[in-house]
Amino acid sequence: MKYEMKRTTIFAEQETWVELRKIARRDGRSVADLIREAVRRLIALRQRPGSVPSLLGVGRSGRRDVASKHEELLWKTGRSRKRR
Fold first, then answer.
1. Over the stretch 61-80, which tens digit does the pLDDT of each residue have?
2. CA atoms of 75 and 50, how far apart (whole Å)
């Protein structure tokens, strides 16, 4: 399904921009993608009681092989953490 995107400009404090870029780099995502996610979450939080929340794209990782490689991906994540 394809959605029409609208362009906008936002103003952010320098510290906010720096942190946003760090998160984007760490997660392998664009700043624009993070902002779209944040806006979707804000809209979901502000929806009126009784309305149906939009969950479209909430769990989207950008990978197409998660279903077939879920165990491998889970164990890979577990091995990367240091044992205590």
1. 777 777 787 777 777 755 54
2. 39
Phi-psi domain of 45 (left: phi exceeds 0; alpha: psi -120 through 50; beta: other): alpha
Considering only CA atoms, which of 30, 56, 62, 27 is closest in space to residue 43? 56
Spatial distance between the Cα atoms of 5 and 33, rounded to a whole number of angstroms: 12
The residue behind tokens 């969950």 is 55
The Cα–Cα gap between 83 and 5 comes to: 44
Write phi, then psi, for 20 (nearest 5 degrees): -60, -45
Q: Is the pTM of this model over 0.70?
A: no
